[in-house]
């Protein structure tokens, strides 16, 4: 199979070619491996490969599976493959091996997908960029000096460059939608609990984290959700497997009431400034929706961004402290001696000083916001707003500076972490870490489904996604709208130039 033919198809397209005998599973497999071997030295998207293991696993795939023979990549975070490395983007976990397959990995195999390797993520998935010290930093295929975003930056770079037609990703505060926006891809964050995280985890970040994929086509995302959704044994979220996500694309949605916002209530408290190209992307999407018969009007979400950011970062601190303790248990290395980045260590120390009262109050605020959004969706079917404040930033631009890392290192002084918390360091952290991406955490806290649509490209040639948020559990309507916009805009015609 020629490389240009391989890149021309989405996942379901490749599966159809294999099923109809136009190409063999081995030809597709070899094309994907060749793409990774040629492209990854430039991209830095894939941190490890498993070609031979995947080749063997492919021999027992059900040929009737929806993605039989289709190559994919999993993320180096949470998506465990039994007996194989999973580093969570950290040197501290470089030698750790997962005891068993994650439930999601089991379902990927049942769907017929060939898992060729793992993609880059920032350390413990903590940033909206992908620049881990322990692994290569992926480039944005549209412009190599720019970031693909994070934390699923490796997955986004791999799909945008055509290494694989779809790659698995996770989203705890925008980590599917931000890379989708920066790399010109479709990225759906499903509703809370829709995709299982077991058996190693029940919920991550109090349910804020949901796993799914980055894709070039809407139909790949929908068909994959058909295959992987539904609770596993012991899940804290009683959501049985549901069919019909791919079938929902067959009928365009009826006229919808769409609220359009530039996200001022979310970004104002953090000092966010919207790039003109982002504003243009949202406005053009609104005009496109109106042209398709939907009713669009200006309406901001009923949320105060400062309180939302404080609530999100409070839970983030507490969970990081717990995650570092878990890593210490798994590796046998005391937390204070773990080989982790200065920013990770500093934030972990802040988390250890977090009072249980503040943690619980922050979690209660999630309920307040979720109820407000449920009321909002009684008036509006969907919410249209930005994904990020700018197109893709330059690589290194958003990583903590050396001066900031030296300041964080001072938290090692006894008592310094508590003093920092009392001095309002949490609000500074919120502003520094979320200023460029204050629009995506809302759906993680409320549990709502949300998606990034690749509807705009700047004059400089960088993609800009727009975000659409739906009511809890309403992925079918989001996917139907996405398919309608995909057909209207023809975004599937666009990919960055081939590498090599």
Structural commentary:
It contains 18 helices and eleven strands. By secondary structure, it is an alpha/beta fold. The two termini are 17 Å apart. The relative contact order is 0.14. The mean pLDDT is 94.
How would you summarize what this structure contains?
This protein has 500 residues and is of the alpha/beta class. Helix content is 41%, strand content 12%.
- Strands of the largest sheet, in order across it? 4-6-5-10-11-9-7-8
Q: What's the average pLDDT?
A: 94
H/E element order: HHHEHEHEHEHEEHEHHEHHHEHHHHEEH
Relative helix content: 40-55%
Total helices: the number is: 18
Low-confidence stretches: none
Task: Tag the structure with descriptive keywords.
single chain; alpha/beta; three-stranded mixed beta sheet
List the SSEs and their pairings.
Elements: H1 3-7, H2 11-19, H3 25-43, E1 46-49, H4 51-58, E2 71-75, H5 103-110, E3 114-119, H6 153-160, E4 166-171, H7 177-183, E5 186-189, E6 210-215, H8 218-228, E7 257-260, H9 264-267, H10 276-291, E8 295-298, H11 305-331, H12 342-352, H13 356-379, E9 382-386, H14 402-409, H15 416-422, H16 425-434, H17 441-446, E10 450-457, E11 463-469, H18 475-489
Parallel strand pairs: 2-3, 7-8, 7-9
Antiparallel strand pairs: 1-3, 4-6, 5-6, 5-10, 9-11, 10-11
Helix pairs in contact: 11-12, 11-13, 11-16, 12-14
């Amino acid at each position: 199979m020629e490389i240009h033919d391989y890149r021309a198809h989405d996942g379901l397209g490749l599966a159809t070619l294999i099923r109809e005998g136009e190409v063999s599973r081995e030809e597709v497999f070899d094309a994907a491996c060749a793409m990774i071997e040629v492209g990854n030295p430039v991209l830095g998207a894939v941190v490890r490969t498993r070609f031979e293991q995947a080749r063997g696993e492919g021999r027992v795939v059900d040929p009737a599976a929806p993605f039989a023979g289709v190559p994919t990549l999993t993320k180096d975070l949470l998506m465990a493959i039994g007996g194989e490395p999973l580093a969570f983007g950290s040197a501290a976990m470089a030698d750790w091996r997962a005891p068993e397959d994650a439930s999601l990995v089991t379902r990927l195999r049942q769907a017929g997908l060939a898992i060729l390797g793992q993609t880059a993520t920032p350390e413990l998935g903590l940033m909206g960029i992908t620049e881990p010290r322990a692994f290569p930093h992926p480039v944005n295929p549209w412009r190599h000096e720019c970031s693909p975003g994070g934390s699923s930056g490796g997955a986004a770079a791999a799909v945008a460059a055509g290494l694989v037609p779809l790659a698995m990703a996770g989203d705890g505060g925008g980590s599917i939608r931000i890379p989708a926006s920066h790399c010109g891809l479709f990225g759906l964050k499903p509703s809370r609990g829709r995709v299982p995280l077991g058996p190693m985890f029940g919920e991550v970040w109090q349910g804020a984290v949901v796993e799914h994929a980055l894709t070039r086509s809407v139909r790949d995302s929908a068909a994959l959700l058909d295959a992987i959704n539904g609770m596993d044994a012991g899940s804290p979220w009683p959501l049985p497997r549901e069919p019909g996500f791919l079938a929902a694309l067959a009928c365009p949605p009826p006229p919808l009431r769409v609220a359009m916002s530039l996200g001022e209530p979310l970004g104002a408290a953090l000092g966010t400034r919207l790039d003109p190209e982002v504003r243009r992307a949202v406005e053009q999407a609104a005009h496109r929706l109106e042209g398709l018969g939907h009713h669009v009007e200006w309406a901001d979400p009923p949320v105060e961004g400062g309180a939302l950011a404080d609530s999100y970062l409070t839970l983030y601190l507490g969970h990081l402290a717990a995650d570092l303790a878990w890593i210490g248990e798994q590796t046998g290395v005391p937390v204070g001696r773990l080989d982790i980045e200065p920013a990770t260590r500093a934030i972990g120390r802040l988390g250890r000083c977090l009072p249980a009262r503040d943690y619980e109050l922050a979690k209660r605020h999630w309920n307040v916001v979720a109820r407000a959004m449920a009321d909002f969706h009684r008036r509006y079917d969907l919410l249209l707003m930005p994904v990020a404040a700018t197109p893709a930033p330059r690589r290194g631009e958003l990583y903590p500076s050396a001066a900031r890392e030296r300041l964080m290192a001072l938290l090692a002084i006894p008592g310094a972490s508590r003093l920092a918390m009392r001095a309002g360091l949490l609000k500074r952290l919120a502003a520094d870490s979320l200023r460029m991406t204050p629009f995506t955490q809302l759906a993680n806290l409320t549990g709502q489904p949300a998606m990034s649509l690749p509807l705009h490209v700047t004059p400089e040639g960088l993609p800009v996604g727009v975000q659409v948020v739906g009511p809890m559990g309403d992925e079918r309507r989001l996917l139907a709208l996405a398919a309608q916009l995909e057909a209207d805009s023809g975004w599937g015609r666009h990919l960055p130039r081939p590498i090599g």
